[in-house]
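pasting input
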Amino acid sequence: MSNTDFKKESTSSSIGISIKKFFSKIGLILKKAFKSVVSFFKNPVKYIKIANEKRRAVINDVYTPLVHNPENILEVNKLKMYFPIKAGFFKRTVGYVKAVDGISFNIKKGTTMGLVGESGCGKTTAGRTILRLYERSGGQVLFDGEDINKLKGKKLRAKRPELQIVFQDPYSSLSPRLPVGEIIGEAVREHKIVPKDQYDEYITKTMEACGLQEYHKDRYPHEFSGGQRQRICIARALALDPKFIVCDEPVSALDVSIQAQIINLLKDLQEKFGLTYLFISHDLSVVEHISDTVGVMYLGSMVEFAPTKILFKNPKHPYTEALFSAIPVPDPDYKMKRIILEGNIPSPANPPSGCKFHTRCRMCMEVCKSCVPNVMEIEPDHFVVCHLFDKEALEKNKEMEKELKAKTETKSNLTEE
Amino acid sequence: MKRDMTKFENIKEEELNDINRVANAPEIDEKPPIDIPQQALDDERRVKVISPSVLVAKRFFRNKLALVGLAILIFMFAFCFLGGWIIQYNQKEVFYKNDSILFDYATATERTSYENYYLVDSNDIHYSVRNMLNSYIIDMEAQSQTTRELTDTENNSYTLKKLGDNIYSLEYNQIDSVATYSNNETTATYNSFLDLLILEEDVIIENESFFKSTVSANIETGSFSYSGDDFIITPAGTKNIYTVKKVVADGLFDYSEEMLGVDFENAVKANLSEDTFVFNDGNYIVTLNATGVFEISRDFGLQNALYATTFVFDCYDTTVILDNDFKLAAFMAVYGSTNFTYDERTFSIAVNEDDILMVSETTSGTAVPFANMSTFAVRRYNGEDTLSINFKLQLEDAVTIMLEQNITETSFTAYTVLLDENGEELVDELGNPIYGEAEFDLERNLSYFLLRNFQEKYLINIYDAPSAAHWLGTDANGMDVLTRIMFGGRISLMIGFIVIFISLFIGVILGGIAGYFGKWIDNIIMRLVDIFNCIPTLPILIILGAFFDAVRMDPYTRIMYLMIILGVLGWSGIARLVRGQILFLREQEFMIAAEATGIKVSRRIFRHLVPNVMPQLIVNATMGLGGIILTESTLSFLGLGAKYPLATWGAMINAVSNATAMIKYTYIWIPVGLLICLTVIAFNFVGDGLRDAFDPKMKR
């Protein structure tokens, strides 16, 4: 009897406690809301300022402004793109998906930069943020020494033609109700890139340069194959006389033979018009073929950045090594040294502390778990973000390991006793 | 290098044409033999350039079902708009016809109720006696009494006497008010509560305020003198209100009719204390009423007030109309002197050889039959007494036979003036009526006999079967069905277009805004859409229909309001469609590409978004047209849509609600029903066809 009574008491008291907790929680929320409302009405300008500062503090938008180098066409400095996660009835921001988390690189005029990494690491977002198709959360993008994010309205629209993009999916990137000539020429007319009387000729020329015929002008996108569609996309970008094109995995939706055509076409056009490419891909062989420099991304940050030849010969970062070990070699007798990464990619909304890669790194040290690695220039133009190449970090690691050892020893002693 | 084949500069123009060849056979060094024609997808010879609208049209016309639908629609529009213009009738025109139908000719009845013929003003007899007279007489008949004393509710006495068969007289004590006499005159009313004195008209009193104070001081004593005149104060019946009266020494006479002179006035003054007095051989009565006024009235004694009788007069000359005085004279004489004069003519009443009371005129010395008095009344069906006495007598004989044989229906042949198709008397060239034998149906009802014959009548031509004049017959209102189908179709077809236009207008704007701007705007508009979706359409329309009925709205205005309401209730679906499409398209890569090329927002909406929504809209609208036509038909069928005399297809199919019409007169509603079905099906066919034609993924 006494036993059951006790049970009853315990359950009722626990319910009471939970109800108390619930109400105290509600009270706290109301108090907070009331305070914020009061502060908003007291001084709205100050309130907004504080809110902005809070947001910036969350995003941690800290960077030293770049000095423009005229050799470079594009300079990216600590670029951040956080997508807010909204939840609840009032759609409050509860967190951020850190799709691009502070990447920095430069592209020289007339060169191609490859951006590689596994899917979901933020390559496409980086490309689109550079073109200001997304409003960046932090950092700086200089195009020809001009901060794109400071442009507005008409000026921005006038700048748009100089930066173009070729999309991954040639099927959804063409408006199904417009004829090809119109798709290519619409923006040409809008920006008055050529005089009216030369317009037709110009479109024809551009199409021919991309391997399309004049009579394709009046056709609709659905009448074309994937490769042709991608040519239309390239022609659309090219017709605006751009300086810089982001190629967002332009060949991944195509079969191999057409991939070659498109890539060669891009190369030819680069030579012909002196274009600069940011070539986003996860196909390493394609990147090796087309790029002058390569950046490797992992979970929103750049882990290694170097000229193609150096990087492909001598990858330094453990992630790059693992990635490159996956390149297939067309030789059945060749034994591959595959480095297989364990575990899944961590969520970009809640990345690991220290080095983001430490959860899957085979060379993981004690420092990696707590300290964010610095950018190290181990060779000229070869940048690696890893503690392995940082002498200070290695020393620090030794100390930390010693401490850990001492801790475990004391622990084991205690248990023995 | 093999790869150099695809390098731009190295490729010749013809080779560039054929991407397939390059793609499939990059390894082949040799060129294919020249004489084999190249089969390429993008061959200029094979594919012709077609503009998008032509492409859609081509696809549409390839669809046979859609073509059938289009043909039906074109036919419908031509039928309704051109047909209504060509046809000679109007939708509101009512058609008439001449037809021979068995129609009421005359009624005959044995009169049992007594009618009162007044010698004096009927209001002198109290209504309680007047109204009950018939039942008193019937009671007397039953008890075979000859006289009966009656009193009304005001205790006046009357005497009801039986003069003879079918005739009674009522006598009453006639007292006429002659004059009033009073020895004081109302000068003012006084309100003691408000201290307010209101003088009567035409009364002048010096120093009114002093008069008022005198009045107020003397309320309790009840009398006072003021500037030589005596006044009395009496309560007026209401609290605090008094009447002030001036005493007049000689008294005042107020005659109701003629002045009777000083002698009469002296006689009155002398006899004020008496109840009655005699003056100039007349008996007078003096009464004092509640306000202190003497009423003098003359007592004429017993007087004959009225005759109650069941007799009717049937004149030999049907053109003669007898007036009340003649009848009274006849009633007075019938059981008395049997002779009477009226209008300087002399008449006598006697029972003739057929036992009928006959009034003969004896002015010229010889008795000329003038009229019959009987209790058997024969009248035309409309109540006029225009039938000849001969006909009446024949009918009376026929009725007697009928009653003897106890039958309810018989045919009756009368030798009488023949009638033409319209019920008028036939006349020969000299203007004399033509006599002959006419056939009638005689039918006995409860209290009367009904005489009917076939008469040619001008009638509304309802439910006429299809003929050369009316191809689809006429409806219940005698209107041409074909004409009404044509005119009704105009409204039915137009309603769909206007309603859809209104719906599209609201739906596209609100849906577009919701879809393109998103966020809270989208939220608000979508909640609005939810609200509109929740509104139960039919009950609302029923309520509105009742409201329109209540305010007696003109049919055209009603249709206008109906269209607006249907449009406003129907936009939510379209808004949802547009919003969904735009939400989907907004996230498409070609929209991002358009943004990257730096095109204006307006261009992005109208060149990239709208064309992609348009096909769905057109298809939705076309499909919706049929639905709206059905809705309108339903509403009109329920009596909530278009109102008579305006024709719509739904209102016309309402004929089905009459069971007889549904079974017997199928030509009224089957054509309309078929047209509604065909139109709705055609709209659906065309909608389907358009949807297929607009779909770019459909094969050519």
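fyi The two ends of chain B are 41 Å apart (CA to CA).
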